Amino acid sequence: MSFKTIERSAFYLLLAANLLPLWSVHYFLTGDGPCHLHNAHVLLDFWRGGELKDFFNPWMYVNTNFMPNWFGHAFMELCMGIGFAPYLAEKLLQTFYVLSFGLGLRYLVRQLNPNSLFISTFGLLLTYHHVFQMGFYNYSCSVAIMFWVTGFWLQHRNAWTTGRMMALAMGFLTLYFCHPIGLLFSFLVIISVFFTEFVGGFLAKDRPVAPWKSFWQNGFAVAIAALPVLVLFAQYLFIKGLDPSPRGESDQQIWKDLREFTALVNVMNTERPWAIGVAIIFALLLVAAIIFKVKIRQIRWTDILLPVTAVAILIYFKQPGGIAGAGILPIRLQFLPYLMLLLWLASVNYPRWLQTGTLVFTAIIFVGFWSIRLPSHQRAAAAAAEYASCASVIPDKVSVLPISFDHNGQDANGREVANRVWLFMHAGDYIGAERSVVMLGNYEAATQNFPLIWRWERNPIDRLKKNDKMFEDQPPIADFLNYPKNSNNGSVDYVVTWCMDRKFADHPNTADIKQQLSEGYELVFTSQTGLAKVFKRKGL
Known about the structure:
Blueprint: H1 3-23, H2 33-48, H3 51-56, E1 60-62, H4 71-81, H5 86-112, H6 118-123, H7 130-133, H8 137-156, H9 162-178, H10 180-203, H11 210-240, H12 251-260, H13 272-296, H14 305-318, H15 329-345, H16 352-388, E2 399-404, H17 430-434, E3 438-439, E4 452-454, H18 460-463, H19 483-486, E5 494-498, H20 508-520, E6 521-526, E7 532-537
Parallel strand pairs: 2-3, 2-5
Antiparallel strand pairs: 1-4, 5-7, 6-7
Helix pairs in contact: 1-5, 1-16, 2-4, 2-5, 4-5, 5-8, 8-9, 8-10, 9-10, 9-11, 10-11, 13-15, 13-16, 14-15
């Protein structure tokens, strides 16, 4: 077989292998994923109206501002609306992301340099990153769709029609309703290439007029396509403001994280050597690309992507801790310099031996990653299923407070499920995906960044605090006996505990929660291995 055939086969084989983790388990558990799924279920109940809408109205309302972070919720709401089970709706969104990332990257690389498609195969190692594992579906989808939108502009930038301009506008709008980061970096690449080609064409002596014509045609097309999303983005900033917060990590720490590419360490810290291996391949490809560029002594329009990479690195180091309602910026932004560098690397023509070697090491690292991740995901899926089994004794139209005493999770034998990410912080919200209930651990509704917003008088994130601590802390604490008088007659009908008798069994906070449970609740369900327990309010 030709190398082209081998490379294409390797790409689609690894792309298919990237789907295996999702479909080999019932729940592919991520940090915030269960909460997103629950909110999508509530949105569907609001949409259907009737008694369920009347039940939810005293608790929360739909955010009517045109904000980002709607895409994933709308996707899962639509899937459930046409008959898919909730867990399948989440799995379809995860599948959409994985396929969009891989195929979108290959599409974009093809527009940059069809001779370096092997870079897209290497890039499949970046599909599963820490931000996705945290359950930031909208952010992850924005990165994947950014490939498609940018590639579409590159393909059609000199041949605009009304239909293509409308398609570009829809791409920008989709990016906005995913997450602003994909939209902003798509703009960065498009504007950089746009002006690079204009300057290059203007300086060429044999084309004194065409660059101006191309400049106005392309500029007009992009401006018209971007106008709706620019209006929406201005509205978003007006509502949210920049409101930057200080960064907790030092420059030395974020440099170490960038150097070791810790954004690829997802579930267990034992993944670190493989993440460093990916960073080393990046470094070797960068050195090789520079050498080849020096040898041929030729500058192409794609070389602007190297300064774009430098801009991404600068943004990473100059970032605040949070801005415009978005937090945890270091781990979000660490991923982007590598993506921008990946695009520049794709613009270089490499010898066959280097392409072959990259594919071989890509396959080795792929196997290394999943030899660690898959067992953890299988344990997490089993534990999540046990947690979700609590829904069997919880009816519709009640309020449920999930309290996790171990965000890392445990299996029946007491083994830690994850030590890199808090997989079980919101895993209890799978109960709210199976039932039409109010999940009082719904952090999203307290941020005003998502489709649903708590009514202030019942906001459990504030009203359940005790000694300025909350039920998401470790160890958790909550004042749920006094919630009715603190929340304008709200109620905590059910309390679901996770690992209460394990990690913090002897802590005073655990004793306080047990005392409240004994006073006002009765045990009605214990899961198969005792990790999860359901308590019903007395007299309910």
